[in-house]
Specification:
With 435 residues, the protein is α+β, with helices and mostly antiparallel strands. The protein is built from ten helices and 17 strands. Helix 3 crosses helix 8.
């Protein structure tokens, strides 16, 4: 049996003697003999707005939900406000009488109807029918559980998660990205005496760069907005232009566009995709701290997230935007170098079902070595990895030990034509004829 409370709230849309804010607050008297305050004792409440015919149009024009108790109006003694948690207007307001000129409330809930009451009870059936007849305007909602689902679907392994964060550093025009893993439970191969974060629950993963950093706008509208287009616009342009260039047979024009876009974005094209980095931080640990600074700022922005707050085992759905995240500013916690900007991501607390082992950490290290070019990258981007608990991690590039079997050198002109030279040097232990 439903425990919800269903109400009709009288509300004039144009003028009212009360300090109403449609869809946000409802203002009502609580001191008279009708005692409207008692109608709001049982939460949650679902209601429909009704504009009386006396000075209005006699229409039901919207639906709302109330989940908090009323609070007293400090300026007008005896009056109260109640906050509206959700408001959905109707696409076509519903007249309070049907085609037979009968009052709808009397038809559905005669036991509650009293036209003299500005606040009155009604039934769930009445609310439902009025909403449907009014063409209630709905929206997509994002469940907080989405972060868990996407984190597990998009980030297959710890290695993938760390690499996504490295991509973010590259996209932020960093010249370096340092990744450090410390305080890993159960890993006692090395003795750590120089922990960066000795008071944090391990494993602790630190990803640091000297990129552009983030300001409040970027944090709020980029990092905290899954699938934001802030970084993906360039990729979408390139995908579209490449398809059209191939269809027109003018791939050279596409290459010219690539060159232009790279020039506009620090000689780089974005690597990150669909905001996967934020899901990676959830996959790698239960808690997150981001410290970031732009060159124009004298302080660093500090964003702290407890991912467990997004997981709700109750049957009541939790919207993604219902979990508040605090953003603060602090004095710089590190030297941001010549560029005076960058980001440090600290992930800690571990994640149930996932663990960092010596084997996994060694694999991450090998992947980082494979990212390094045997020549100096034209973008000037260097990646380093360290885990003090594991001694003798590989440091040599594969090209330091083996000569390349194939070497390809090419020059592409403005028409997309490539003049290239391909050299083949077979391994010495494989007999080959001169040809």
């Amino acid at each position: 049996m439903s425990t919800k409370n269903f109400l009709v709230l009288s509300q004039y849309r144009e003028s009212s003697e009360y300090n109403d804010f449609i869809g946000r607050y409802y203002h009502f008297p609580g001191h008279d003999k009708k005692n409207y305050l008692s109608f709001f004792n049982s939460l949650p409440i679902e209601f429909v707005y009704y504009e009386p015919e006396k000075d209005g149009k006699g229409e039901f024009f919207g639906y709302g939900r109330i989940v908090k108790s009323p609070f007293e109006d400090k300026r007008e003694k005896g009056n109260y406000f109640v906050e509206i948690a959700e408001y959905k207007p109707f696409s076509k307001p519903v007249y309070f009488k049907n085609e037979e000129n009968k009052i709808l409330e009397q038809e559905y809930s005669p036991q509650f109807y009293n036209a003299q009451n500005a606040v009155r009870r009604t039934t769930e059936e009445f609310i439902e029918n009025i909403c449907l007849d009014g063409g209630i305007l709905l929206n997509f909602k994002t469940d907080a559980h989405l972060l868990k689902v996407l984190g597990e679907e998009l980030i297959a392994t710890e290695k993938v998660g760390v690499l996504e964060l490295v991509k973010n550093s590259y996209d932020a025009h960093a010249t370096y990205c340092k990744v450090r893993v410390e305080n890993v439970p159960g890993l006692n191969n090395g003795i750590e005496t120089n922990l960066l974060y000795p008071n944090l629950e391990g494993p602790v993963i630190i990803v640091e760069d000297d990129g552009d950093g983030m300001d409040r706008y970027t944090i709020e509208n980029g990092w905290l907005r899954p699938a934001s287009t802030i970084k993906t616009t360039v990729k979408e342009i390139l995908r579209k232009e490449k398809v059209e260039a191939i269809q027109r047979g003018k791939i050279g024009a596409y290459e010219s566009l690539v060159k232009k876009l790279k020039k506009e974005h620090g000689n780089r094209l974005p690597l990150g995709e669909k905001g996967v980095g934020r899901f990676a931080t959830r996959r790698l640990g239960s808690k997150l701290e981001i410290r970031t600074k732009t060159a124009a700022s004298t302080f660093e922005y500090v964003l702290k997230i407890n991912w467990d707050e997004f997981d709700d085992s109750s049957e009541v759905p939790k919207d993604l935007d219902s979990v508040a995240i605090s953003l603060q500013r602090e004095n710089p916690s590190r030297d941001y170098g010549p560029r005076n900007s960058g980001t440090r991501i600290i992930i800690f607390g571990g994640r149930e079902g996932f663990s960092l082992t010596e084997s996994i950490i060694s694999e991450i290290n090998r992947t980082f070595l494979q990212l390094k070019s045997p020549f100096r990258s034209p973008e000037g981007f260097d990646v380093t990895f360290e885990c003090p608990q594991i001694r003798n991690l590989d440091t040599a590039l594969i090209t330091d030990e083996f000569e390349p079997t194939f070497s390809f050198y090419g020059i592409v002109d403005e028409n997309g034509l490539c003049d290239f030279e391909l050299n083949f040097s077979p391994p010495r232990n494989i007999p080959m004829v001169p040809e």
